[in-house]
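User: Fold this; tokens only.

Assistant: Input:
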Amino acid sequence: MGVKVGTVPTFASTEADKAQAMKVVEEAAEVFGAWQTWVDGGWCAGDRGALIGECADTIQAVCNLLDALGVVDFTPYVDMCRARNEARGREYR
């Protein structure tokens, strides 16, 4: 099993610059902030939705950076990541 992400449309203008790379960091930090809200307040519909929304924003930022780097098919990179993780003893469902 896994999480189905689907095709992520990228923004019309992307650049492989510092700002684009920092956007990934910014969005990831917002994921952590939303997660902290959950830890402090417990799961409620708003907290869960906010956390998942921040995850989506992070995926968008990563895909925009990949687009700027000229990546059209990310599949081989995900496959390599999986192989590395399996070599480290991590298991998948």
